Predict the 3D structure of the following.
Amino acid sequence: MTLPFGTSDGTLVENRPDTSLFGVSNTINVDQRLGHIPKAKRYPMPVMPPRFEPTFGRWNHYHLPSVDSTDTNDYYPRVTTIGKTLDDTEFLDKWKTNKLIEGLATYPEILDLVDPVLLSEGDPATMSLVENLVERARVAVGTSNAANFGTAVHAWTEAVDHGLCRIVDVPIELRAHVAAYVYACRSAGITAIPSLIERIIYNPYTGSAGRIDRISRMPDGTLVVLDVKTGKNIRNSVLGIGVQLAQYATSTHMLSEDGTHWETPPPMSQTLAIVAHIPSNASAEDGGVPCELVDIDLERAIADMMASVDVRERRSGKKNLITGVRYRLVSDGAVSHVESEVWGHIQSAQTAEHMRAIYAHYAQSWEPHFTEWGMARLRYLGIV
């Protein structure tokens, strides 16, 4: 398989013309050149039994069996992509930009790998390289550490819910977070169902697919969507979270565990979903790690989901707002000599009589905007 940077083994390589200006050879091995730059922190992961792993296509869409046919596959956008439709990303975008600048300022040698000429020309290999380097710059200053921590916490909570390990078996740096989740669920009488953990679903309203964290059983027997979140603060992203969980709860198809066909998911609550919030910035040494089981109003979240669908449809059809071109003019920047003369005379006029004389002289070629110029001049002089 050929990867974006031209190799089959995962090594990030870019080919470009030799140039002494940048002090590089024909082939740049990014990993070798940037080997001294910090990478994202990694955490030990549990050993899980094999499970179906989907493939992904363009735009990172799921490639799964068709919900309309038994012998074909289709591509489906991600549930999380739909969930971000209504998000206000202003502060996130600023944070990403700040981290990019911080990374490049700390490790300016990253820029040595970029040929600005090829970049300005839109060279595909250079564009791909830049995308990689942007991420490397951010990762170098720790942007992925919290995400990797969250991924590990997710995996270990899943392992405990599957009965594959005990809390004491969880690595010490993750144990307090996993324990907080387990004990919070036990105290609230919420039970994970092993066969309904990390299952892939399809939602007909959004046309999306996604992997649900888990479907859990409430004390009264009701099944609810339960999602583990490890962000520092979920309040700022609760709108997108709600849309995400609404898609899970209103899904009509659940992929079989072997990934070969679709099944009917169990009936889930349409009024309540739960977020198990375990903030990644909390620690056992600094006051302990909390886990809040946050109730999500699914009725409102479902309404937000449908609003997201409407927004995406409007965006995809934005060109349809154009009903036609009323007039088209091509300009070379030249201004007619008459216009220049009229402008000059108007700006020199001192009286209304002078203005009337200008009009009389240019009456045959007079334009409406000349009148506007004249009135503006008369107002400036205090005549009108």
The chain has twelve helices and twelve strands. The chain has a mean pLDDT of 89. The radius of gyration is 31 Å. Residues 34-140 form one domain.
